[in-house]
Amino acid sequence: MLIPREKTPELTLPTLTGETFDLSKEQSERGLVLCFYRGLHCPICANYLKELDKETPAFAERGVTTIAVSSDGKERAEAMSEKIGNQNLRFGYDLELQKARDWGLYISRSRGKTSIGIEEPNLFSEPGLFIINPDQTLYYSAVQTMPFSRPHFSELIGAIDFAVKNNYPARGEYTDAL
């Protein structure tokens, strides 16, 4: 389990821009929104990533960068980027499933073609949303077993504004005996 205020796992992935995303070298004033999505086969992910693409400039105004990541290969990541009409969002691809598990993500098996007629990969990770501080410590996380009912990015932007204004610390860090 990842613990708030502690360092997150390393993450290095190729991106659709041809650059390499390396979490340990990410440069931002206030952090990173890291959105793990299921893959091209997921219509709910497409709608969610459209929202993140739209809100990426608002995150940038607050000194926060964004990236969407899946275990899909480059071709499927490109197809998802095109599908959502991507304008602002970085896409990382080729997430190793062991790395997904290191981040606490749930792994699912394929059930064949989805409602939109796209074959699911044999294994893939379920969604996870993280805010990582510039020092690579965990500030916020939401990990799901299903694609439904994800945190809204507009609410997350408001939460970031509140946290900055009030110097609000990451919560959930207690790990001693109960």
Output the keywords.
21% strand, Glutaredoxin, 4 helices, 178 residues, 28% helix, globular, five-stranded mixed beta sheet, alpha/beta, two-stranded antiparallel sheet
Summarize the structure.
The protein is α/β, with parallel strands linked by helices. It is built from 4 helices and 9 strands, in the order E-E-E-H-E-H-E-H-E-E-E-E-H.
Description:
The protein has helices spanning 43-61, 74-83, 97-102, 153-166; strands at 12-14, 20-22, 31-36, 64-69, 90-92, 107-109, 123-125, 128-132, 138-143. By secondary structure, it is an alpha/beta fold. It has a single domain, classed as 3-Layer(aba) Sandwich (Glutaredoxin).
Q: What is the succession of H and E elements?
A: EEEHEHEHEEEEH
By CATH, the superfamily comes out as Glutaredoxin
SS strand fraction? 15-25%
C-alpha geometry: globular
SS elements, strand count: 9
**Share of residues in helices:** 25-40%
CATH fold title: Glutaredoxin
User: Mind telling me which CATH architecture this is?
Assistant: 3-Layer(aba) Sandwich
How are the SSEs placed, and which strands pair?
Elements: E1 12-14, E2 20-22, E3 31-36, H1 43-61, E4 64-69, H2 74-83, E5 90-92, H3 97-102, E6 107-109, E7 123-125, E8 128-132, E9 138-143, H4 153-166
Parallel strand pairs: 3-4, 4-5
Antiparallel strand pairs: 1-2, 3-8, 6-7, 8-9
